Recover the amino acids of this structure.
């Protein structure tokens, strides 16, 4: 027992000494996650620490890649120092405030995470040869990741159940946060520690020759490749259908072709050592034919991509799909024409394309998307003759479909900090209405303001769409001066309150002319119906869509010996085509009451 304990502690000590920076990053990630959960209602704290967690999680894979590289070339301290500088810089590249964070930063984080994991796969194998070592190294990493997931799942579940058992059997009444804290500690730091235990000495252990795993051979031969074959048949039949009908391919076919190609490349990598074995002729055939089967699909892929790009312009997702298509084309050309092709080309080329999309001046994803959408917006405005003295004419008659396109492009560019460009297209009156919308962290304010700025809109879009209008009050403080009582209510419950022996019943289920309205009764004898007042609120804004800001949303009336006033922070009316009834929703409404 003592020997076993010493062996375990010895291995744990080896991991700590061999991978200190990886473990530091994992530990900081766990601590950050725990702090975020425990302070999740503090928005500023939540955002800052979420950035910190993202950088530390990125640091786990980055520091592991640099450690493996240092085992090949030395200079560990220099590499880890450069890695730390990069992570600190990455933290400050991300916006300081949550309202400045948008999907662009999400793309930056996602692509950087992908690049760090690709770096792990090839950082120590940049020199020529070592082809089989490269495969063994990545195969062992793949197996270790799978084992780590199994071990971590069992360990986390077991510890959580143990805490629950102690809590319930011995009445400790643990705080619920204990379960969350335990989960993040084991799921992040624990899984990282287990993964490093499986890797033992690192590069020397991971790249050593070993027998081909039987389970991997079975999975590839009898599951993965047959599924790919079925997938290929479906895509080819769809391609023939396009040619026969002479129609453009649907947009989502791009994702299907990319999925088939990437999974196929993964299958090729998994069976790489078997392709030279004579007994495995099926592997050799698959390895030779796979890239040729992709060629017709690449034509389909580029047709689908450019159909969308030429019609709607570039956005970051379309840019990345096109970039993946170009990468796939480069892989096919490389393996078809190069008789001595190396499988290392796959992760290295993908890394190069990914880095290009983030940092290459003028041609990176974000520059291309902004430039394209600006051009698309100007083309829309020019073709529809909406520009007068280089300003948008909001008085001109226009279809709701075109309004939606213009509003979407305004929202897209607003989220990407193109405020000056957009304000330049507005006359002083429209500029005054929209300028405050640029302070919003999302684009919905700009979208709605642009839609509502057009005064002559023809509704020609699909009538099956949901008709929805939100009125939002600009008055954020309720003045109660002159009133004696206040009742809070919402649209989901019927409220009844007694004041001075008089019972007020608020009924929001009443239907008048297929519209749910508010009816307030006093002692079940007298009642006032606010349906007309409520309908007028919406009819006054009926030509507008989505969200409309109004000075105040209020209705008032006499009721018996009282005067009542109902005030809404916001109120929503919607109607679907399958239902002729308008539904009205509101929250946190108040009713003020005073005796006359």
């Amino acid at each position: 027992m003592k020997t076993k304990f010493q062996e375990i502690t010895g291995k744990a000590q080896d991991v700590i000494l061999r991978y200190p920076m990886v473990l530091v990053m994992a530990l900081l990630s766990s601590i950050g996650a725990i702090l975020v959960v425990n302070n999740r209602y503090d928005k500023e704290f939540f955002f800052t620490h979420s950035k910190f967690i993202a950088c530390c999680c990125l640091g786990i894979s980055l520091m592991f890649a640099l450690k493996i590289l240092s085992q090949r070339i030395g200079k560990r301290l220099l590499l880890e120092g450069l890695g730390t500088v990069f992570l600190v810089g990455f933290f400050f590249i991300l916006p300081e405030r949550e309202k400045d964070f948008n999907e662009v930063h999400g793309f930056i984080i996602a692509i950087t995470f992908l690049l760090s994991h690709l770096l792990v796969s090839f950082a120590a194998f940049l020199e020529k040869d070592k082809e089989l070592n490269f495969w063994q190294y990545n195969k062992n990493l793949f197996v270790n990741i799978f084992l780590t997931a199994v071990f971590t799942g069992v360990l986390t579940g077991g510890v959580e159940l143990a805490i629950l058992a102690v809590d319930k059997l011995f009445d400790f009444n643990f705080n619920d946060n204990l379960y969350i804290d335990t989960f993040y500690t084991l799921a992040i730091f624990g899984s990282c520690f287990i993964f490093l235990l499986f890797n033992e000495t690192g590069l020397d252990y991971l790249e050593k020759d070993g027998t081909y795993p039987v389970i991997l051979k079975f999975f590839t031969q009898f599951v993965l490749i047959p599924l790919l074959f079925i997938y290929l048949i479906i895509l080819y039949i769809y391609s023939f259908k396009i040619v026969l009908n002479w129609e453009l391919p649907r947009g989502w076919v791009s994702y299907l072709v990319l999925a088939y190609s990437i999974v196929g490349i993964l299958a090729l990598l998994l069976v790489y050592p078997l392709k030279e074995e004579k007994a495995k002729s099926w592997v050799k055939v698959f390895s030779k034919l796979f890239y040729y089967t992709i060629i017709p699909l690449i034509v389909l892929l580029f047709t689908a991509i450019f159909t969308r790009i030429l019609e709607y312009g570039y956005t970051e997702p379309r840019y990345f799909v096109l970039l993946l298509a170009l990468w796939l084309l480069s892989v096919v050309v490389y393996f078809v024409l190069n008789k001595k092709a190396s499988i290392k080309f796959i992760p290295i080329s993908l890394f190069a394309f990914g880095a290009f999309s983030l940092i290459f001046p003028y041609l990176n994803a974000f520059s291309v998307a902004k430039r394209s959408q600006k051009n698309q917006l100007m083309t829309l405005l020019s073709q529809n003759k909406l520009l007068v003295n280089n300003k948008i004419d909001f008085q001109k008659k226009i279809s709701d479909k075109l309004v939606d396109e213009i509003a979407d492009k305004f929202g897209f560019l607003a989220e990407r900090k193109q405020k000056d460009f957009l304000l330049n297209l507005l006359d002083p009156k429209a500029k005054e209405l929209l300028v405050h919308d640029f302070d919003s962290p999302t684009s919905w304010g700009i979208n709605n303001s642009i839609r509502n700025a057009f005064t002559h809109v023809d509704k020609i879009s699909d009538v099956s769409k949901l008709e929805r209008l939100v009125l939002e009050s600009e008055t954020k403080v309720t003045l109660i001066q002159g009133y004696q009582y206040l009742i809070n209510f919402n649209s989901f419950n019927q409220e009844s309150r007694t004041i001075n022996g008089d019972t007020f019943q608020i009924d929001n289920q009443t239907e008048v002319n297929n519209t749910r309205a508010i009816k307030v009764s006093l002692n079940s004898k007298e009642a006032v119906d606010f349906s007309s007042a409520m309908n007028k609120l919406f009819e006054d804004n009926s030509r507008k869509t989505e969200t409309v800001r109004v000075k105040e949303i209020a209705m008032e009336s006499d009721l018996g010996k009282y005067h009542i006033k109902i005030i809404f922070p916001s109120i929503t009316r919607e109607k679907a085509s399958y239902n002729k009834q308008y539904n009205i929703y509101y929250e946190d409404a108040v009713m003020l009451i005073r005796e006359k």
